[in-house]
């Protein structure tokens, strides 16, 4: 696996997050060594101030297995149930005691179910979605993907929210006018291929100011989205082709495969958060590296003032 020094863009992301001070994060049900270790590592890196929410005895057992200290780390004892612990963590965020929420060792739907509940008061008018931020050795700048985690088969209405979430997020982390490639399997509009129709509609909506603050083009196939030479060969005139900041995928299948290809074949490292709630939700996978989990905390920190 590549060493941290092989991902300078990720190094810069984490350094920028440290410069903003620690983010108060309610960590829901950190009852595995991976989940707890990631939260404690982000704490040691000066990125977050974790509040560990879950059964104290299990959290302390995990810390003992890690040989890690819990000194100066707040623990909120909760029932040994991932759903109830998730609700307790969400309640802390709702009460303003934490500014972000982090997934522990529960299933994603158990945490997000607590987030979208009426009692939580964390929903906004937008649909929730996820964005990945990548440091790819073969690409000249950070590259984001949305949505590879939350929305399975979004229609145009849902894609408007997904794109708006990602553009607003890009502004908050320093992209003044992000270039967005709306992906499909081809770069021409085909009425028999719904993803091309959605891409064309989103592009026109951006042209008309319905989606503001980004340069949007689509449909683009992956090759001509990511390669200016490919776009030139296919005679595609585009301000986005070859230089996107954000790839918007047509569905979760495409996004998930692309994300894993970037990691396992492209030598990339990533960070990711869920958007569309009142606070960023740090959502990590059991397969994510410790570095990716820390970087996700850094990304959440940078997304807030």
Automatic annotation (TrEMBL):
Keywords: Acyltransferase, Transferase. It holds the Pfam family PTA_PTB. SUPFAM superfamilies: Isocitrate/Isopropylmalate dehydrogenase-like (SSF53659). Residues 87-300 form the Phosphate acetyl/butaryl transferase domain. Gene3D superfamilies: Isopropylmalate Dehydrogenase (3.40.718.10). The keyword Acyltransferase applies. Belongs to the phosphate acetyltransferase and butyryltransferase family. This is Phosphate acetyl/butaryl transferase domain-containing protein. It comes from Afipia felis ATCC 53690.
């Amino acid at each position: 696996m590549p060493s941290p020094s092989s991902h300078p863009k990720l190094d810069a992301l984490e350094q920028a997050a440290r410069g903003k001070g620690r983010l108060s994060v309610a960590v829901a049900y950190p009852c595995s060594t991976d989940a707890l270790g990631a939260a404690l590592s982000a704490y040691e890196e000066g990125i977050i101030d974790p509040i560990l929410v879950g059964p104290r005895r299990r959290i302390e057992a995990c810390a003992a297995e890690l040989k890690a200290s819990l000194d100066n780390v707040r623990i909120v004892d909760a029932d040994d149930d991932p759903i109830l612990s998730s609700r307790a963590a969400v309640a802390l965020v709702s009460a303003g005691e934490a500014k972000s929420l982090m997934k522990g060792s529960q299933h994603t739907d158990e945490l997000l179910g607590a987030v979208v509940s009426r009692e939580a008061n964390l929903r906004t008018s937008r649909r929730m979605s996820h964005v990945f931020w990548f440091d790819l050795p073969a690409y000249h700048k950070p590259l984001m993907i949305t949505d590879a985690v939350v929305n399975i088969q979004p229609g145009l209405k849902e894609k408007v929210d997904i794109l708006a979430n990602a553009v607003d997020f890009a502004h908050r982390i320093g992209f003044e006018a992000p270039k967005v490639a709306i992906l499909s399997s081809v770069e021409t509009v085909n009425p028999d291929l719904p993803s091309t129709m959605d891409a064309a509609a989103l592009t026109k909506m951006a042209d008309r100011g319905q989606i503001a603050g980004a340069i949007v083009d689509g449909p683009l196939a992956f090759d001509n989205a990511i390669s200016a030479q490919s776009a030139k060969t296919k005679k595609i005139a585009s301000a986005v082709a070859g230089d996107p900041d954000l790839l918007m995928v047509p569905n979760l299948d495409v996004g998930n495969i692309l994300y894993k290809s970037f990691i396992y074949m492209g030598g990339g490292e990533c960070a990711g958060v869920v958007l569309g709630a009142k606070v960023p939700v740090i959502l990590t996978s059991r397969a994510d590296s410790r570095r990716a989990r820390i970087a996700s905390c850094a990304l959440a920190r940078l997304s807030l003032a």
